[in-house]
Amino acid sequence: MCGIVGYTGFQNAIHILMDGLSHLEYRGYDSSGIALEKDEINIFKASGKLVNLVESLKKADDDKLDAKTGIGHIRWATHGLPTVENAHPHTSSTGDIALVHNGIIENYKEVKSFLENKGYSFKSQTDTEVAAMLIGYEYDIHKDLKTAVEAAIKQLKGAWAFCVMHKNEKGTIVATRKNAPLLIGVGEGENFLASDIPAIIKHTKRAIYLNDGQIAKVTPDLIEIFNPDGTIAQNKVEVLPFEPMALSKMGYKHFMLKEIHEQPDVVRNILQNKIKDEFSKILLSDVNLSEKQLKDINRIQIIACGTSLHAGLVGKYIIEELTGIPTDVEPSSEYIYRSTIADKNTLVIGISQSGETADTITAIKQVKEKGSHVLIITNRKESLLARLSDSLLHVNAGIEVSVAATKSYIAQLMSLYLFAIYMAETLNKSADKVQEIKHELLTLPSKLEAVLSEGMKIREIAKKYSSFKNFIFIARGINYPTALEGALKLKEISYINATGYAAGELKHGPIAMLDETMPVLAIMNKGLVYDKVMSNCEEAFARQARLIGVANHIDDKHKAIFNDYILIPDISDLVSPALNITVLQLLAYHIAEYLGKDVDQPRNLAKSVTVE
Predict the structure, then answer these.
(1) Maximum Cα–Cα distance for the chain, whole Å?
(2) For a Cys staple, 483 with which of 210, 293, 469, 473, CB 3.0–4.6 Å?
(3) pLDDT of 347-374, one tens digit each?
(4) 163 is catalytic
(5) How far apart are the first and last CA of the chain?
(6) What is the number of helices (H) and of strands (E) in the chain?
C-alpha cells in the first residue's frame, strides 16, 4: 500500500500522475514511482519523498516522458525495505507489463515458488512483484490483459487494488480490487484511476467506485466493468464530495494545525439539522433502528483501530451512562482472531475515518454473518464500510490531510454523543442528563474557539517540554481515553515515548518511572473523579515529576504542585473530552514543530491502513 493514481487520455500523463501522487502524500509513504506507456513501458522510481522522484525525472529522456497513459504509486513498506527495488510499479519478467498495488498478497510465497519453478526470477522482496509476474505468466497464455488479470486474481489470496498496463494494449489500464479502495474518475476523452479522491478531484467531479472482485478496462473513451462471473456491471456514476480548496493549507504552516482549528466548524456542521435545541429530540435520518429493535438490544460492541478506538472508549462511557446497555470496546485487529460473540440482539458499531480500515472491514463482515445490526461511523460515506452498514453516521468532517487524526476524532466523538442521546430518547432513559449534554454540545463550538485562542500559551508550554524523551498522560473516567489519545498524538508526530494511563494505575507500576526527567500531564475536570486525580498528581509531585494540568478548575491549595497548567472553559464532565483533546492536539503539534518533525507526514505511518 499506500496510494495509486492512473491516467489515460489526451494530456501528458506524467503531469497528471505526479500531481495526483502529491495529493496522496498525506497518507504517509516511503517511496514512489510511475510507469508510462508509449512504445514501451518506462519505469521511474525513487526511495524517500516524492521530491526524489521529481529529481530523477529531470534526468530522464524527454521522449520517454511523452506519454498519454500511465500509472503511479506511493508505497508504505509492508514486504521489504523502502528501497528503489521494492518501490512500485513492478513489472513482469519481460518488462511488458507494469503494475501498482495497494494491499497484501497473503499467499505470495506459494505463488512465488510456483513461478520460480517455471524459471522466473525476482528483483525485489515484495508481494507485489509476484502479482506482476503472475499476470505476465497468464498473459503469455491468454494474450489479453483483462483475461490475464482475471485469471491471476483467482489464484491470489489477500487484499489488493491493482492497476495494470501492457505495452501492446495502447491507452488501456486494467483495474481490479478486493478489500482495498479503488475508484475510476470519469472525464471527457480521458479517464482517471485513484485509491482516494484527492488524487483526481482537480480533474473530475464524477467517479465510479469498483466493488470487490470487479475488473475494469479503462481507455480514454470507454469504461467497461465486469463482475466476478464475467457479466457486464452497471456501476453508478457518483458525484465526488470534496472541493480542491480542502487541499489548501489556507495560510497555516501545516495541515494538522489547520485541521485542529477547523474543529469548531466541524462540530457545528455535525450538529446542524440534528439538534434543534436542548428540548427537542435528536434527528438521525440514516439510523435505521426501530424502537423495538433498540429495546431488544442487550449488548453493544464497538470495533475500531487507533484514534477511532479511543473515540469508541469515550462512546462506551456515554452510552452506558445514558442507556445502561453493556458496551464493549475492542481493537478490530484483536476482534477478528477470536470467536465472534454476537447475535441479532447485539448492536455493533464500527468506527473508521476512512471507511477502508482492513481490520475493521473484516470484523464487520464477521458480525454481519451473525445477524447483528451494524452501525458505521465514518468520514467517507462512499467507503466500503459505509456500504456494509445497516445504519450510517457520516461524521462530515471534510477531508483530513494530515496523517495524525484531529478533526475526524472530534467528529467521531460528536457522532457517538448524538447516537447515545438518540438511544436514550428512544428508550425514555436519562432525560435530565440528555438535556444537559444537548446544552453542552450546542455551546461546544464557542468553547472550542476559546481553547484555540490559548494557542500561544500552549505553544510556550510546548517549548519547555520539547526536549524531554518520555511523557506520561493520566486521567480517570471518561477522560481516560483522552489520555490515551493525547499520548498517541505526541508519539505519532514527535516520536517522544508517550504513554497514557488510568490515573489510579500510576501507583501499580508506572510510578517507578517518575523523577525530574518525566513530565506527567494530568487531565482533571470538576466532578466525581477530580479529587482522586488530584491525589495521583500529589503522588507524582512527591517523586519530583514535572506536572502539567489540563482542567476546567484547579483549586488554590493544589496550584503550587503544577509546573504548568492550562484552564479550559467550564464544561460538563461528560462532554469535557472534546475540549481536553484539543489542548493535547495543540501541545503535541507545537512540540513536534519545535523538534522540526514532518508534522503532516510522520515516519512509518499511513493515513488509511488498508492491510491487516
Answers:
(1) 82
(2) 473
(3) 999 999 988 888 999 999 999 999 999 9
(4) no
(5) 11
(6) 19, 24
**CB atoms < 10 A from the CB of 118, how many?**
10
- Look up the CATH number of domain 2-213: 3.60.20.10
Q: Which three-class secondary structure string do you get for 218-249?
A: ECCCCEEEECCCCCECCCCEEECCCCHHHHCC
Report in angstroms the alpha-carbon separations of 277 from 207, 319, 395, 426, 435.
Answer: 38, 20, 20, 17, 9
Q: Which fold has domain 255-446?
A: Rossmann fold (3.40.50)
Q: Which three cell numbers stand for residue 358?
A: 482492513
Q: What does the DSSP 8-state code read for residue 570?
A: P
Q: Name the residue among 366, 380, 392, 360 with its Cα closest to residue 207.
A: 380
Look-up of cell digits 491468454: 142
At residue 89, what is the residue type? P
What does the chain come to in residues? 612
Collapsing DSSP to helix, strand or coil, 349 comes out as strand
pTM of the complete model beyond 0.85: no
Which residue among the candidates 2, 163, 305, 537 is catalytic per the annotation?
2
CATH superfamily of 455-594: Glucose-6-phosphate isomerase like protein; domain 1 (3.40.50.10490)
Rounded CA-CA distance 273/270 in Å is: 8
From the candidates 112, 316, 407, 607, which is the catalytic residue?
Answer: 607
Between CA 348 and CA 329 the distance in angstroms is 10
Task: Decide: helix, strand or coil at residue 337.
Answer: coil
List pLDDT tens digits, range 100-141: 998 888 899 999 999 999 999 999 989 899 999 999 999 999
At CA 236, angle to CA 234 and CA 242, rounded to 5?
Answer: 155
**DSSP per-residue codes, 24-86:** TGGG--SEEEEEEESSSEEEEEEESSHHHHHHHHHTS-HHHH--SEEEEEEE--SSS-SSTTT
